[in-house]
Amino acid sequence: MKKDIILKVEGLKTYFNTDEGVVKAVDGVSFELSKGETLGLVGESGSGKSVSNLSIMSLIPSPPGKIMGGKVLFGDKSIFDLSEEEMRNIRGGKIGMIFQDPMTSLNPFLRISTQMVETIVLHKKVSKHEAKKRAIEMLDLVGIPKAYDRINDYPHQFSGGMRQRVMIAMALSCDPEVLIADEPTSALDVTIQAQILELIQSLSKKLGTAVIMITHDLGVVAGMCDNVNVMYAGRIVEKGTNDEIFADPKHPYTQGLIKSVPRLDKPKQKRLYSIEGQPPNVIDLPECCPFFPRCEFAMDKCKTAYPPVTKFGDTREVSCWLYEEKTRGE
Amino acid sequence: MENKKTLLEVKDLQMHFPIESGVIIKKKVGAIRAVDGISFEVGEGETLGLVGESGCGKSTTARCVAQLHKPTAGSVFLEGNNLCTASKEDILRARMDMQMVFQDPYASLNPRMTAGNIIAEPLQIFKKRGVLNIGQKEIVEKVEGLMEKVGLSRFFRNRYPHEFSGGQRQRIGVARALALGPKIILADEPVSALDVSIQSQILNLLADFQQELNLSYLFIAHDLAVIQHISDRIAVMYLGKIMETADSLDLYKHPLHPYTEALLSAVPIPDPEIERNRHRIILTGDVPSPDTERHSCYFYDRCPKKMDKCAKSVPALVDMGGGHKVACFLHHAVSES
């Protein structure tokens, strides 16, 4: 159904051993990313969005973290079977990453040129001189004025939005096939956010890069993703195309999430819809639907087992007992 | 709005932070003009939303109103009393009517105090200073009442902040602000650090208290959708100036200032259908540094509709009818004196 799959995640499980118990940060996540696609990964803090992606990059600190199961296929290679050296070629080369906080992800002691040239020389096997030329080109592309001069500046000489542009330039400088953007705009103001999102969108189209967009902001997802995965407590609870998810959310959590955001385009309501209760503690989670204490449609069944995946058409998948009859009927 | 009594009035408020240089003998070499002459009013039971990007002076405004910073110029009237010239005693008394809720529920609660003691602290302080005549037993009762009111079990009284989630901590922060029975709450980004599903819980909680206690809010946020939801009136700030102020519906339907237009168009709307067909005004560049004195319109550098005139003088905030005020030469020709 999907063409040219470049990244495939199957049943990924990442657990952390802590003093209080085993934290199942990611518990059986599967998704596919095809060439040129923008995939949104939405969820609240602690839902496992970031950990899934750090696992894909094998960046989980171990101990305490441990990948307990599942496979990540990048092209035809299984990422967990690669040696550290091979992995280093992929990281930053074939898969680029943008982090949330542009201040902590750039080294404050090194000039931008040093940091960018290092990456390019490592992955592209070119001379330093050529690498610098490439770096200036990239800075130009992301819209840094006077890139030729500014490449010799230190990170603190750039504003937050500019630093995020530098991060994007760096991530894209080695022509990655996949770009993982982990909350790239959460630390930025709305007008700067609009600039950065537009930039990521236009560059990914131009360079044919597939993007995994991790965010908690439904508006960001609606604006730029092709497909959306909604995560809750370490699992994907709903998948679908962008339009399907927003027009017809099936999982009660997705429905609640969409309803609880105040909207500019809708008339003002007296009260906002709100999902009662707190997100669950993922330590020693029992085998049940983790959303049932907050769910308005909760049934007895929800307390005893995790719901199976129900498919609707080619693109939609929902994990909820409400749709279980449909599975049984087939 | 006109028939409501004015509770808080801010006039020409100015807060310049000095930039000093020199190792031993400090010399003032400049100033950060965080708030550069703003005026607004908040009526009884009304919510004024203050919105703008980081660094535009929203939080400094709130802190000046609460007299946590002594403003460099201008006045703050709470029920007719000018707090900027008031004695320490009077400010203390005024703080009973004016409380703050802060952004970061992790940093604004003392990690070494229990939830109960945190909520009781304002009461204890005012008791010690002799302003409030209240017994220890009453304090405990009051704290328990407040905890139930904000949706926390009173059995959590002896727990420490780290045992609560972000949303619950913000509930403690709200309870602490309510402890003295204030008339106005200055809420500085109270929901920005919270998850979407928790954010709506806290917004509803604040709305409920407003109805029940006829509270006023000065509500600060950078999220326009949140501001529109909670506010009766909105003031848009940029570089320490108010650019536009209007009723919340009016502002969203008919924004006049180019900055407001750009802000509104930059907010992502969770609907792919709308997002695809939207025309987005993308502002170029960043917010300039507020360390220079400006003789042009404050938004001049980034404005997509700038004219020659805008470089020469600062537009005044002029009422365009129905309380919709705007500081832009596209709509009037009045300069600031």
CATH level 3 topology of chain B: Rossmann fold
CATH H-level name of chain B... which superfamily?
A: P-loop containing nucleotide triphosphate hydrolases
Shape of chain A: globular
Q: What's the helix-strand series of chain B?
A: EEEHEEHEHHHEHEHEEHHHEE
What is the string of helix and strand elements of chain A? EEEHEEHEHHHHHEHEHEEHHEEH
| Mean of residue pLDDT values of chain A | 86
Number of strands of chain A: 12
Total helical segments of chain A: 12
Short note summarizing the structure:
Chain A has 330 residues and is an alpha/beta fold. Chain A is built from twelve helices and twelve strands. In chain A, the strands form two sheets. Chain A has an eight-stranded mixed sheet, with helices on both faces. A four-stranded antiparallel sheet of chain A has the order 2-1-4-5.
Layout of helices and strands, plus pairs?
The complex is a heterodimer of chains A (330) and B (337).
Chain A: E1 5-18, E2 21-34, E3 38-42, H1 49-56, E4 65-74, E5 77-78, H2 84-90, E6 95-98, H3 102-105, H4 112-124, H5 128-141, H6 147-150, H7 160-172, E7 178-182, H8 190-207, E8 210-215, H9 218-224, E9 227-232, E10 235-241, H10 242-247, H11 252-259, E11 309-312, E12 316-319, H12 324-329
Chain B: E1 6-21, E2 27-43, E3 47-51, H1 58-65, E4 73-78, E5 81-82, H2 88-97, E6 98-101, H3 115-128, H4 136-149, H5 166-178, E7 184-188, H6 196-213, E8 216-221, H7 224-230, E9 233-238, E10 241-247, H8 248-253, H9 258-266, H10 272-276, E11 318-319, E12 325-326
Parallel strand pairs in B: 3-8, 3-9, 6-7, 7-8
Antiparallel strand pairs in B: 1-2, 1-4, 4-5, 9-10, 10-12, 11-12
Helix pairs in contact in B: 3-4, 3-5, 4-5, 5-6
